[in-house]
User: Fold these one by one.
Assistant:
Number 1:
Amino acid sequence: MTSRVAVVTGGTRGIGKAISIALKAAGHKVAANYGGSDEAAKAFNAETGIPIYKFDVSNFAAVQAGVAKITAELGPIDIVVNNAGITRDGTLHKMEQDQWQAVIDTNLGSCFNMCRAVIDGMRARSFGRIVNIGSINGQAGQYGQVNYAAAKSGMHGFTKALAQEGAGKGITVNAIAPGYVDTDMVRAVPPAVLEKIIARIPVGRLGHAEDIARGVLFLTADDADFITGSTLSINGGQHMY
Ligand code: CAA
């Protein structure tokens, strides 16, 4: 297996942490991006030995600088996992404009920023693996999440468009649509609401972050070169799409 340089956004916590660890275990050089908690990122680095890079993925210039730093320190980037995401839940009639904008910029804008920063190199080297972490709620919608559902749904459209552009250049672009996974984000859902959601998951449990990381390894493998523009749903059977 060829060892590659991989970047995971939001790669120090939750699903991103499991993805970073899995890519490292598969023999890749991993850069774990984060934007929030220094404490969690330092603990992640101490636990895994994976280098951490703090920059705001919703900021175009910050991403350009962050990607340049990773490239200088680890080498040209072959694998990008756009995983960073936030929620600012609320019904539309109570939603403030900043709740909308923050989610669109962080979850969807980041996808453009990261891909734009690496695409020239991938095209020049005729190799790239991009995985966008969407959501079941981008496929099915979710009460209280017009912002999040729109951003995640946008990521699925982005995936299919960029897949067409990359197909002749050795660059695959796929999405994973996780269901409800046991992370801080899902644990923040009001307990009574979460209980009802879990009751609707046929497998009968929340997902584990590792369930999603398994899909990332599959889609980023060198020999996954015929899989592009697809969405892999990993949701315990909650939404069959
Ligand atoms: N479908 C239909 N009705 C619903 C509903 C649903 N899913 N959820 C709530 N309602 C109803 C309630 O029953 C209630 O109705 P009544 O007033 O008639 O009793 C009404 O909506 C108001 O509900 P709340 O009291 O909860 O209203 P709120 O304004 O305090 O909160 C909310 C609304 C913010 C949407 C809250 O219900 C919530 O946080 N829901 C969870 C949203 C969710 O699932 N987010 C996913 C986060 S995890 C994630 O995003 C990761 C991923 O990719 C899967």
Number 2:
Amino acid sequence: MSGRLFVIGLGPGDARLVTPEAQAALDLCTDLFGYGPYVDRVPQRSGRTAHASDNREEVGRARAALALAAEGRVAGVVSGGDPGVFAMASAVFEAIEAGPPEWLALEVTVVPGISAMLAAAARIGAPLGHDFAVVSLSDNLKPWPLVLQRLGAAAGAGFALALYNPVSRARPWQLGTALDHLRNLLPAETPVVFATAITRPDERLEIMTLGDADPARADMRTLVLIGTHETRRIGRGEGLRDWLYAPRAARASA
Ligand code: SAH
């Protein structure tokens, strides 16, 4: 079996943030699989077939890519950001584990990408410069009480938070409920950032506090950053966006 499978991270949107390694892997692929908008980000070229699919068909998409790789083709599965962060790499390994034994012999390469939290943090300063936790607010693949439990544990332990999947058309209330939960645990002046469509033409960044964060201002392209009582805000005056950063040293919490 000579087939190969690449699981490729395309970064947050800007083509300059597709790594050279990701570009080299894309160039090798005969077939590309992924959620439509991600596949559309890769310029078409002759000799490569695009197999775009719906957002919820992750394991089916992974199986289709693996089946083609097993036939000797070079299949690529693309994700936005990093493929290992709430994305296709896990679906590929789930499919391999449950699949036919010959898939175990395939050459599988996961090509990392710049995840949304890193791109968003870079825009605003260094809000993830010390310990932080990453939580998806989607309850499609885990029960909602577990989301709240993890948020509470992480906030209670003093971690800054990066929240993925804050809202979608099918999940309109989760972010508001999550923010209310955090308001019970953290000071109202805790900095909050809504970073939307980072590195894309319609990028939007809003710095707020936990007390006044309005969930209606987030959409499915938003990454939410929640600071800690130690997060510093450097005010820069009229017309200039403030910087947020986590100091290099953290103290024991009270
Ligand atoms: N694998 C991706 C995450 C996929 S989950 C990564 O590593 O970035 C989809 C969620 O990622 C979105 O709901 C949003 O919370 C976040 N996201 C993806 N791209 C983004 C961008 N350009 N700006 C802000 N958030 C983004």
